Known about the structure:
This protein is an alpha/beta fold. It has 2 domains: 14-148, Translation factors (Elongation Factor Tu (Ef-tu), domain 3), CATH 2.40.30; 166-290, Rossmann fold. Helix content is 20%, strand content 31%. Strands 4-3-7-1-2-6-5 form a 7-stranded antiparallel beta sheet. Strand 1 and strand 2 form a beta hairpin. The radius of gyration is 19 Å and the shape is globular.
Amino acid sequence: MTPTTATAPEVAPFRPFELIVLRTRRLGPSILRITLGGPGADGFSGGGRDQSLSVLLPRPGQSEALPRPGRSEALAPAGGGGAWHDKWRALPEDERAVPRSYAVRAQRLRADGSTEVDLDFVLHDAGGPGCRWALAAAPGDRLAVLGPTEADNTAVRFRPPADTDWVLIRADETALPAAAAALEWLPAGLPARVWLEVPCTEDRQALNTAAKARISWLVRNEGAACGVETVRAAELPGGTPYAWIAGEASGVRALRHHLVHERGFDRERVMSAAYWRRGLPEEQLRRAEAEPR
Ligand SMILES: Cc1cc2nc3c(=O)[nH]c(=O)nc-3n(C[C@H](O)[C@H](O)[C@H](O)COP(=O)(O)OP(=O)(O)OC[C@H]3O[C@@H](n4cnc5c(N)ncnc54)[C@H](O)[C@@H]3O)c2cc1C
């Protein structure tokens, strides 16, 4: 396949951006696309694949997500988030804007030189600040994000090594935006076996890829089996694989175990990420992941 950067860069160039909601569009019963832009998007450098950012949501009673003092300095480009990020992290957690992770589904440069960014939000029944913000979002609303100032930053984790013969992708609806962008990026003709899980039939999307992708939709309201058994039963291509698995934590862990311990995949070639965990808000999930096992 086309040579890729197999390892992430050593710096994580990102900074806060203040974006404006331009429009919203329901992609299906469970997924809402929010297109953002405005002058604050200048310098936003999406790199495709599964690149993610943090949306920063004001707490109840707060009108601003970004701290006012040092605002001008804060929004100046700075590798690694800069002084603003340090100040923000130093705030007590109950005063800090709530961060939530979302994939950069797409970035477009418009004819007038302005930038548009699409984020696809899953509208889940458990609620949460991210989901609630998306449901209420309307054109003209502001959204602060900690986003990329370089296309190839450390928030890109889909990195098939150059000797990859084929790619396995398994994503639930939260990882569908990232998986869709990764499929767009894959080189022409590369074999890919892809399982995409969504809540409802109408959540399925048309996907663009030049890869030789065999895509299976697992639709929960149609009663599809969504556990590891689906991949276990599949005949996989031969050659050297690269696997990318993201979604609910327990399913991700089970599939990683299957690929590494039952299929013999090299663990270094399996990128797995818990995008959410049932019953845990994102900050608690991150804390749980950081604890020693
Ligand atoms: C790198 C990365 C990229 C991500 N990209 C996207 C993306 O592009 N689009 C997207 O929608 N999500 C994405 N996610 C997942 C998203 O960050 C989580 O779903 C997050 O928990 C949503 O925040 P919230 O405020 O709505 O809920 P939280 O406050 O975090 O959680 C509240 C409750 O909701 C539950 N919950 C959270 N998400 C779901 C869900 N999808 N279904 C059912 N229950 C849920 C939690 O278990 C908890 O009980 C990504 C996560 C990561 C780490």
